[in-house]
Amino acid sequence: MKITCQSFDLHLREPFTIARGTVSVQPTLIVKVEYDDLVGYGEATTNAYYGVTLETMQAALDRVSDKLAGYRLENPAELWKELDTDLADCRFAQCALDCAVWDIYAKMHQMPLWELWGFSLEDPRPPTCYTIGIDTPETMAKKMQAAAPWPVYKIKLDASGGIDLVRRLREETDAKFRVDANCSWTAEQVPVLAEQLSQLNVELIEQPLAANEFDAMCSLKGNCALPLMADESCQVESDIDRCIDSFDAVNIKLVKCGGLTPARRMITRAKQNGLQVMVGCMTESSIGISAGVHLLPLLDFADLDGALLLADDIAHGITWDAGICKLPTAHGLGVELV
Fold first, then answer.
1. Among candidates 43, 31, 35, 2, which has minimal Cα distance to 105?
2. What's this model's pTM, rounded to 2 decimal places?
3. Which of 84, 86, 218, 283 is 20 to 30 Å from 153 at the Cα level?
């Protein structure tokens, strides 16, 4: 098994702003794994909030390259476990490798990954939201109009709360809204904002408080007009148990937890404990997005619009119809670099 890496700059259609900053160009690392005559792909973007750079990911993968030479693949989950000690300090790199290995494993079995996992084309799949970054109300409205028709939008908000903004955007569509504060609100704001947002066809609030404020979130759960979803508070597998008493739902991102292997376990654990589940994304190309797509039949919500926000995708194979992803029929993850 041989690993090679290639970095790309993903240019966004428009500058993308959340409560803690703006991105116009997103660096990403594509991991290519060669095994016998098969090739698998995985991806992880850089992320300043999580301290991830191209260099840290490359260094992590370099540490395991010798162990992979001559490795005979029998079970991707077993390989993940064997390499976890080496890659635990860089889950983003671990994710890219794990997804590439699952891509190969499904190709070994000559079927799409979703089929290998026992899903069918008839299984219900939630639509992905389309994310509208923070901007002037007029610009956000135009972005929403450009994406229409779309069944659900995620509206990024900041410390101001954004009620007037959501009211303005509600004039543009009857579609469902989700709002994401990215850790910018206070505990005092949340119940008041939740009550007001519930009157505007908002279905949930994502990550209202800072990531470590579990005690405050525990006091808010069950005392708000809207469900509360963890994102920054739910990074790795052990965080699921921390979220049970503090949130109503979790947003699992493959790069945060280390790939498809732990994500599947997290979904199971969350559902066993009454949490609803979303799989989200960073601003990845269709390589990274495709991995999450294969989990859709397990999910209550999806936020897999990263590649839709790009000016030019570097891969192809994923298609959308009114927010619903058409499961790829090609073997593996179903995507290839352009």
1. 35
2. 0.97
3. 218
Equal fold, 2-113 vs 116-337: no
Burial class (CB in 10 A: 0-12, 13-18, 19+), 33: buried
In the chain, where are the structural domains located? 2-113, 116-337
Percent of the chain scoring above 90 in pLDDT: 99
At 145-180, the pLDDT tens digits run 999 899 999 999 999 999 999 999 999 999 999 999
> Count of residues for the chain?
338
Tokens of 228: 């509360």
Neighbouring CB atoms inside 10 A of 105's CB total: 21
Q: Is residue 115 a contact partner of residue 333, using CB atoms and an 8 Å limit?
A: no
Burial annotation 248-265 (CB, 10 A radius, 16+ → b, else e): bbbbbbbbbbbbbbbbbe
CATH topology for 116-337?
A: TIM Barrel (3.20.20)
When the pLDDT of each residue in the chain is averaged and rounded to a whole number, the result is 97
> What pLDDT was estimated at residue 218?
98
* Mean pLDDT calculated for residue range 203-228: 98
- For the segment 121-146, what is each residue's pLDDT rounded down to a tens digit? 999 999 999 999 999 999 999 999 99
What CATH class has 2-113? Answer: alpha beta
Measured CA to CA, the distance from residue 190 to residue 228 in angstroms comes to 10
pLDDT, residue 230, reads 98
